[in-house]
């Protein structure tokens, strides 16, 4: 549990940010009804409550204010006009972001371990979004909430709860969070900021490939689901546990070797695809072992960063959502079989390659996103969140490198989180599921990795025998 020390609202420095609005693009619209929830844990073994109150709190409030000068949408609101008109992001001078400081006596080492943990243990470190309000028939929904929790003489947790329409992982983590951390580490000055952190907001270059057809299709679908709820769901499921698994750089290379030995002409083979293929197949086997084999065909969702793949391309610092969906499919019977990992990795690689290289560009067929999503959702549908490219372990507020992080959004859906690990080249996978499935998955995952050396050795021996024939 966590006890609140201070709650405040933080705005950009007075006079630095005027009233602004941002229209939602087709990428933003598809995320209107979803939320981003993340926790970042830092070791801080000699931190006292006095130091936290007298030094850390003022420093973080000041640095957040300066960060909001550049990233004003986090202080703004998502506004829904009447008559189901498309929403937009609006910042009015004086708007603010919610920031809470708290203290917890929970076991920091347990929370930052990789073992199986109850999802409920993290709830009190996740800030609650302020409530929605009505203003002249317009629904006003706050975009962000942040919380910093002290673990006395152990560490600090920084958490956020955001409306996903504000931006994707590149915008939230790579740009905003690293800016906030950089300003804090630099002692509250902005001199430490470089061009890589300054957000690019111009959306005139991001056009609907089908006129307004795609935006209309997406908004009609999202608007229908929006009417089925009242307030954003603030609580996570209570019937799940979570655990962290690591794929080393050497293990990832072994997985690639196995995939390329079976499919030497596979167009797209990366550490991400083989890792996701392995996890997907292990979860399929675990699900089947628990008697929850759901459907003949199963699907896997991954996102593709479109910034540099549009025509013309957008800067890497473009702020907002700019990812397209890639949905792989496979037969459940094959995915849970002995070659399940190979089939899973090939399916994911093929789907990503098709999305990247289809004639007409990455947005070709965007008007089919809703129908593809609905069709895939009728069976077992696993999604992947985060990305190793975010380099989250490099987020430093001046307290040293990240110890670990928890992607809580995966508790809301059937999803995994795939990100970078603490060591160079490592991949860290967060899995959240019912305990029986998690127990089965843990065993299957570990046994499979233990057998990798033998599998790779067989490939080498077979290759040697073939070369002698």
Major beta sheet summary: 7 strands, mixed
> What's the rounded overall pLDDT mean?
90
Which structural category fits the helices and strands?
alpha+beta
> What is the C-alpha radius of gyration, as a whole number of Å?
23 Å
Q: Based on the structure, what is the oligomeric state of the protein chains?
A: single chain
> What is the CATH H-level superfamily of the largest domain?
Chloramphenicol acetyltransferase-like domain
- When the domains are counted, the total is 2
| Total DSSP E strands | 18
User: Under the CATH scheme, which architecture of the largest domain would be assigned?
Assistant: 2-Layer Sandwich
Per CATH, the class of the largest domain reads: Alpha Beta
Distance between the termini: 67 Å
Q: What portion of residues is helical?
A: 25-40%
Morphology = globular
N to C succession of SSEs = EEHEHEEEHEEEEEHHEHHEEHHHEEEEHH
> What amount of the residues lies in strands?
15-25%
Low-confidence stretches: 463-469
Q: What's the helix count?
A: 12
CATH topology of the largest domain: Chloramphenicol Acetyltransferase
Strand order of the biggest β-sheet? 7-12-18-17-15-13-14
């Amino acid at each position: 549990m966590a006890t609140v020390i201070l709650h405040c609202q933080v705005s950009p420095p007075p006079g630095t940010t005027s009233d602004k609005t941002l229209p939602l693009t087709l990428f933003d619209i598809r995320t209107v009804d979803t939320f981003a929830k993340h926790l970042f844990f830092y070791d801080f073994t000699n931190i006292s409550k006095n130091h936290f109150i007298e030094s850390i709190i003022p420093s973080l409030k000041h640095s957040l204010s300066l960060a909001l000068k550049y990233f004003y949408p986090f202080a703004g609101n998502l506004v829904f006009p009447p008559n189901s008109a498309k929403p937009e992001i609006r910042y009015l001078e004086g708007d603010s972001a919610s920031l809470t400081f708290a203290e917890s006596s929970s076991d920091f080492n347990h929370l930052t371990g990789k073992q199986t943990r109850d999802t409920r243990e993290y709830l009190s470190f996740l800030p609650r979004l302020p409530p929605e309000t009505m203003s002249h028939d317009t629904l006003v929904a706050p975009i962000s909430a942040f919380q910093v929790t002290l673990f006395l003489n152990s560490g600090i947790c920084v958490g956020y709860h955001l409306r996903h329409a504000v931006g994707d992982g590149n915008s939230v983590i790579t740009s905003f969070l690293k800016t906030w951390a950089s300003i804090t580490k630099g002692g509250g000055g902005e001199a430490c900021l470089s061009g890589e952190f300054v957000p690019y907001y111009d959306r005139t270059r991001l056009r609907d490939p089908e006129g307004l057809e795609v935006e209309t299709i997406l908004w009609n679908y999202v608007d229908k689901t929006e009417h089925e709820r009242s307030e954003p769901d603030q609580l996570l499921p209570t019937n799940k546990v979570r655990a962290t698994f690591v794929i080393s750089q050497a293990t990832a290379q072994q997985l690639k070797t196995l995939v390329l030995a079976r499919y030497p002409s596979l167009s797209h083979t990366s550490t991400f695809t083989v890792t996701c293929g392995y996890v997907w197949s292990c979860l399929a086997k675990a699900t089947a072992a628990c008697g929850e084999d759901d459907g003949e065909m199963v699907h896997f969702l991954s996102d593709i960063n479109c910034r540099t793949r549009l025509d013309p391309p957008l800067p890497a610092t473009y702020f907002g959502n700019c990812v397209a969906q890639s949905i792989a499919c496979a037969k459940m019977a094959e995915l849970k079989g002995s070659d399940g990992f190979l089939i899973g990795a090939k399916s994911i690689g093929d789907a990503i390659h098709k999305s990247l290289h289809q004639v007409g560009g990455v947005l070709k067929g965007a008007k089919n996103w809703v129908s593809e999503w609905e069709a895939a959702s009728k069976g077992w549908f696993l999604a992947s969140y985060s990305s190793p490219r975010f380099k989250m372990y490099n987020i430093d507020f001046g307290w040293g490198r990240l110890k670990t992080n928890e992607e809580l959004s995966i508790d809301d859906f059937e999803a995994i989180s795939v990100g970078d690990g603490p060591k160079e080249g490592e991949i860290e996978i967060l899995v959240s599921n019912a305990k029986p499935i998690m127990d089965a998955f843990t065993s299957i995952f570990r046994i499979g990795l233990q057998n990798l050396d033998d599998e790779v050795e067989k490939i080498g021996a077979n290759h040697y025998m073939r070369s002698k024939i």
